[in-house]
């Protein structure tokens, strides 16, 4: 009977300090390995969500200008850093300025909501857009590398040697057909990209449709 009690007592033995430390060490190693990939995944979701909102925004402007016979100019706001005197906070920023012309009564009824860009992504555009009362667009690019309007969006994060492909949106004049794709040139992710701006080196033929 005494032997049985001893066996039962030994079977309920808990973990030792060394075992607990070993388990915690393994968990910390796994977290340190998976965290960068998990963080990047969520930033990629932010990027894709922003592009989807931007696509819907452009389609809405195109539809409403044709519907009400008004015109709108879309200009990219130059934003160097996420926190600036212009916005005064670290919340999401609207990287475009939309100005519409026509009947004040109609324009006041329209609710164009410019998509906000988050601090984890950046965008570059090839110039400016004008939406005509016929629902068409004219493009004022800053270069001679194509007639289409190009927007590229990338990730802002610590690189650690990570190379990514820019996602792009291509708007073709005058019909304003919008295509989403992947930009041909890769880039090194880093934190110090400016938030938003127009550049002269974007090439429309480098934006190819996703497979």
What does it look like?
- With 211 residues, the protein is α+β, with helices and mostly antiparallel strands.
- It has one domain: 3-Layer(bab) Sandwich (minor pseudopilin epsh fold), CATH 3.55.40.10.
- Helices cover 32% and strands 29% of the residues.
- It has three helices and ten strands.
- The chain has helices at 2-11, 17-68, 104-109; strands spanning 71-76, 96-101, 121-125, 127-131, 137-141, 149-155, 163-172, 177-188, 196-198, 207-209.
- The strands form two sheets. Strands 9-3-6-7-8-10 form a six-stranded mixed beta sheet, covered by helices on one side. The protein has a four-stranded antiparallel beta sheet with strand order 2-1-4-5.
- The longest helix has 52 residues, at 17-68.
- The chain is elongated, with a radius of gyration of 26 Å.
In short:
With about 210 residues, the protein is α+β, with helices and mostly antiparallel strands. The chain contains three helices and ten strands; from the N terminus they run H-H-E-E-H-E-E-E-E-E-E-E-E.
Please state the overall shape, judged from the principal axes of the Cα atoms.
elongated
- The CATH architecture term is 3-Layer(bab) Sandwich
Radius of gyration: 26 Å
Beta-strand portion reads 25-35%
Number of helices: 3
Separation, N- and C-terminal Cα atoms: 73 Å
Largest sheet: 6 strands, mixed
Helix coverage percent: 25-40%
Q: Return the CATH topology.
A: minor pseudopilin epsh fold
Unreliable runs, pLDDT <50, ≥5 residues?
A: 6-10
Q: What do we call the CATH homologous superfamily? A: minor pseudopilin epsh domain
């Amino acid at each position: 009977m005494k032997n049985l009690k001893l066996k039962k007592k030994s079977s309920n033995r808990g973990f030792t300090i060394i075992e607990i430390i070993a388990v915690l060490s393994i968990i910390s190693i796994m977290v340190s390995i998976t965290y960068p990939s998990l963080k990047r995944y969520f930033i990629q979701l932010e990027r894709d969500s922003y592009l989807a909102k931007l696509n819907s925004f452009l389609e809405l402007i195109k539809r409403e200008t044709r519907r009400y016979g008004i015109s709108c100019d879309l200009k990219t706001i130059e934003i160097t850093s996420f926190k600036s005197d212009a916005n005064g906070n670290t919340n999401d920023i609207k990287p475009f300025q939309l100005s519409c012309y026509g009947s004040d009564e109609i324009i006041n009824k329209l609710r164009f909501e410019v998509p906000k860009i988050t601090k984890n992504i950046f965008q570059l555009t090839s110039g400016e857009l004008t939406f005509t009362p016929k629902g068409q667009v004219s493009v004022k690019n800053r270069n001679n590398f194509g007639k289409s309007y190009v927007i590229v969006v990338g990730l802002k994060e610590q690189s650690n040697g990570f190379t990514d492909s820019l996602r792009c949106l291509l708007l073709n004049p005058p019909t304003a057909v919008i295509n989403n794709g992947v930009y041909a040139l890769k880039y090194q992710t880093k934190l110090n990209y400016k938030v938003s701006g127009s550049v002269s080196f974007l090439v429309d033929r480098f934006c190819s449709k996703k497979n």
